[in-house]
């Protein structure tokens, strides 16, 4: 279940940032700055995180605020799915990360797979677009859309990276300890469903 206060704080921050972006009146700008600071203080207080840290992670963007985009690569081999073990939490996730400016979604998928696993991929196919708020129990300070892109290995060889400890393929009934903030068991099972039925309807929302 979503922790509602986090949603409300994010909405306050979004309204404040839009106001700071478009307002011309100095008094309105001051009020929106106060509103932004209140949202940071609330997030800092309830998460027990330093104000400056919250400001950097939660309210450092400029311009109109939009959801961030997380791209995950779905790579099967012999009916097993490619995972990486993240150094940050010691749990397993599909290769991927934040979308980078200047890259298309498939270019991000290919780059993340190569950097995290050593494999080269191609033959991309959009599988799903999820709103993280609706599908993942772990609360987040940012609103995130997650794009799952199917791809096939065309070269390279297995290796780890500065972000990953291990690289392995797992079958549907042998899933590792998942990094839920990155991908849930339900999402992974949907990816296996695509492997079994490539014509399966795309998932959105």
Question: What's the helix and strand layout?
Answer:
Elements: H1 4-22, H2 26-47, H3 51-58, E1 68-77, E2 80-86, E3 92-93, E4 96-98, H4 105-117, E5 119-131, H5 132-135, E6 144-156, E7 164-170, H6 185-196, E8 203-204
**Rg for CA atoms:** 19 Å
Which structural class should the secondary elements be placed in? alpha+beta
Quick check: average pLDDT?
91
Largest sheet: 8 strands, mixed
Task: Let me know the number of strands.
Answer: 8
Shape: elongated
Low-confidence stretches: none
> Mind telling me the CATH class of the largest domain?
Alpha Beta
What is the subunit organization of this protein? single chain
Question: How is this structure best described in words?
Answer:
It comes from Bacillus thuringiensis. This is ADP-ribose pyrophosphatase. One of its GO terms (molecular function) is hydrolase activity. With 205 residues, the chain is α+β, with helices and mostly antiparallel strands. The protein contains six helices and eight strands; from the N terminus they run αααββββαβαββαβ. It folds into two domains: 55 residues, no CATH class; 137 residues, Nucleoside Triphosphate Pyrophosphohydrolase (Alpha-Beta Complex), CATH 3.90.79.10. Strands 1, 2, 3, 4, 5, 6, 7 and 8 form an eight-stranded mixed beta sheet that branches. A hairpin with a 2-residue loop joins strand 1 and strand 2. Helix 1 runs antiparallel to helix 2 and helix 2 crosses helix 3. The longest helix has 22 residues. It is elongated and about 60 Å long. The two termini are 16 Å apart. The mean pLDDT is 91.
